[in-house]
Amino acid sequence: MGETDIQAEKPDLTAPGDDAPVDLDAEFQDSHIQEILDKLDRELVGLKPVKTRIREIAALLLIDRLRRKFELVSETPTLHMCFTGNPGTGKTTVAMRMGEILKRLGYVREGHLVTVTRDDLVGQYIGHTAPKTKEVIKKAMGGVLFIDEAYYLYKPENERDYGAESIEILLQVMENNRDDLVVILAGYKDKMDRFFQSNPGMRSRVAHHIDFPDYSPGELMDIGELMLEEQKYQFSKAGAEAFREYISLRVTLEHFANARSIRNALDRARLRQANRLFAKRGSPLKKADLMTIESEDIRASRVFVEGRLDAKLNEAPEQP
Amino acid sequence: MMTNHGNRLTQGQFSYLPDLSDEQITLQIKYALKNGWAVNIEYTDDPHPRNTYWEMFGNPMFDLKDPAGILMEIKECRKTFPNHYIRVTAFDSTHGWEAPRMSYIVNRPEKEPGFRLTREERGGRTQGYTIQSYASDRPEGERY
Question: Do B68 and A139 touch (CB under 8 A)?
């Protein structure tokens, strides 16, 4: 290495002076965070509190990075999170994005998402739980571990339940391997609250509690249109009107699962559209016909006809 | 022993180099994971060169993305067997390979006495040779 090389490297090694200006903008541009935040705004409808919190976290990590340049050492912030909200409010989708965001910010190395439930963590016999939980944790390292319906981990009515062992290992890893993975717990609000009450250790290790609000009918309509657009479909004018009506009716019925119900409704509408096109075989079809969901595809739904769900009542409800 | 420079076992990769640091191990694991190989941790106190099957520590680790988890296991293994040989192997399951593609020692006992060369007189003045670890005189688990 030549003399000049050594000199060129030197400024990086020393911290800038106390009065050195900080280029927050440059750092911000560098991280491409805006792109992700924009994408989040574009693809996720509503979810105001969630987006605000993500923005805050992004800002914190960015500032942290700048501070490190001045050798202002602070502990790595804990980013373990808890997502609460009704089914279909976008918890998993946001968790998936979280991995990407944290990777861009340099908080996690890989940014992949490992989704698990109780079955993946808790074993069936003595000595089975620890290796099982550890295996999942190892898979999630460098990324995000998403525990769906985390409250099932703890079953207070059975004191010999192995869930407690799993929680213990999780707690240990959440504390010691903060740099290696981010744990996100998700579940319904009231059950999660009860879970945290009986596991105070868990509560104190989860820094961010984010509540996912239900969608308003207008937002659900936007979501529906977004979903159709992704699959290269569109509403006809009357179709859109019918779907708007459908949403207002569906919201009041039981087992309403926000965006998931919308997706199911659209899937059924596609089924009926295909059937309708098939029924009038012989007449010429255009590309637009293949793409368009008409109002009759939606109005055929049992929500309109009988004022109740498409699924038979004795069938299992839509799974959260 | 003549082939045991500085009384060090030389098996697998990097064995003529100074011991790998944890950062270096991490980088090697990263390389293995990048290639899609499953990384295992194995240990033994019988390092005879013909003893190819070492004891496995925990389960083989498939589908990992990041070396941190494996390093955690290595540390765990070192804690359990501080005076054993521990090696990390990377197994390639691709058809046609189906074999370890990497193998290197990540922990060794403090004192490695090496191997004894034993000569055996056979009929017709031929001579047989065999080697035996000095440490393996003692029973398993008490060797180093």
Answer: no
Contact B85, B136 (CB under 8 A): no
> Has residue B96 got a pLDDT over 50?
yes
Partners of residue A141 in chain B, C-beta under 8 Å: 64-66, 68-69, 72
pLDDT in tens, A20-55: 777 777 777 777 778 878 888 888 888 888 888 888
B9 interface with A at CB cutoff 8 Å? no
Distance from CA of A180 to the nearest CA of B (A): 7
Q: Considering only CA atoms, which of A24, A84, A22, A7 is closest in space to residue A53?
A: A84
Interface test with A, best of B57, B66, B75 (most A CBs within 10 A): B66
Of A131, A143, A179, Cβ closest to residue B65 = A143
Q: What is the mean pLDDT of residues A55-62?
A: 85
Of chain A, the percentage scoring pLDDT greater than 70 comes to 90
In this complex, the residue of A131, A134, A141 whose CB is nearest that of residue B68 is A141
Res. A8: pLDDT tops 50: no
A283 against B3, higher pLDDT: A283
A141 and B69 within 8 Å at the Cβ level: the answer is yes
What is this structure's pTM? 0.78
* d(C-alpha A69, C-alpha A58), whole Å: 17
**Under an 8 A CB cutoff, do A138 and B59 touch?**
no
Residue B121 bridge partners (DSSP): B127
Residue contact B66–A110, C-beta within 8 A: yes
Expressed in angstroms, the distance from the first to the final Cα of chain B is 17
A266 min Cα distance to partner chain B (Å): 35
Specify the pLDDT at position A1.
39
Q: Encoding tokens for residue B59?
A: 């389960």
Q: How does DSSP assign A266-316, residue by residue?
A: HHHHHHHHHHHHHHTTTS---HHHHHEEPHHHHHTSHHHHTSS-SS-TTSP
C-alpha distance from residue A181 to each of A42, A234, B61 (Å): 27, 40, 17
CB B63 to CB A131 under 8 A? no
DSSP H or E run through A96: helix A91-104
What's the CA gap between B85 and B132, in Å, rounded? 16
CA-based nearest residue to A184, from A37, A33, A36, A50: A50
Nearest 5 degrees, angle CA A247-CA A249-CA A252?
105
